Amino acid sequence: MSENDVSKRKVLAIVTNYGVEQDELLVPLEHLRGWGAEVDVAAVSTDDVRTLVRNKAPGKTVRPELSLADVDPAAYDLLLVPGGTVNADTLRRQDAATGIVRAFTSSGRPVAAICHGPWALVEADVVAGKKMTSYPSLRTDIRNAGGEWADEPVVTDDTQGWTLITSRNPGDLGPFLREVDSALAVSTQ
């Protein structure tokens, strides 16, 4: 992919202020920004986001650009939903977050969620009929919400008028980011 493919793309990452898995946020941010995409992080508040490593050890701190309540979903081309158990469990209880997810899916823009991130999609009631993956403990939640769960490094489902990209854990970031790149390149055409 050349830099021009995504240099005008805008990506929104939604998180809470504590507990997002460090690599699931920082690796995609660095990767996408390296390609020239504009990436904004929106959190519950504009206070620093404290990441965790393996859901336990303190990770790096990230300053969000805006709060979830201040997001205009129409301004972005792709939604990124990182995991981390604490982050994802808290994020799915934020009405602003589930509203953002619904805004992306109803308008046909791609959503990329990794690890526990798909919990926000389950809560937003948008997974019925979609094939996806996640951290294995979400399998039953996804199936109960009408989704089809698969144990694969990355699953991309283009049905129902919107693209969903999902991965299981930080070990799957390589294939996950290749699919994110592909979705952004398609949206530039």
Tell me briefly what this model is.
The chain is of the alpha/beta class and 189 residues long.
Walk me through what this model shows.
The chain is α/β, with parallel strands linked by helices and 189 residues long. The protein has helices at residues 3-6, 22-34, 85-91, 95-106, 118-123, 139-144, 173-187, and strands spanning 10-14, 18-21, 38-43, 49-53, 57-62, 66-67, 78-81, 111-114, 131-132, 148-149, 154-157, 164-167. The strands form 3 sheets. A 7-stranded mixed beta sheet has the order 6-3-1-7-8-12-11, sandwiched between helices. Strand 9, helix 6 (139-144) and strand 10 form a beta-alpha-beta unit. The longest helix is centred in the C-terminal third of the chain and has 15 residues, at 173-187. It is globular and about 35 Å long. It starts with a helix and ends with a helix. The relative contact order is 0.17.
Radius of gyration: 15 Å
Spans with pLDDT under 50 lasting ≥5 residues?
none
Percent of residues in helices: 25-40%
Largest sheet: 7 strands, mixed
* Tally of helical runs: 7
Mean pLDDT: 95
Which word captures the global form? globular
Q: What distance separates the N and C termini?
A: 13 Å
What is the H/E string?
HEEHEEEEEHHEHEHEEEH
Strand content: 25-35%
- Helix/strand/pairing class, anyone? alpha/beta
Strand order of the largest sheet: 6-3-1-7-8-12-11
* Number of DSSP E strands: 12
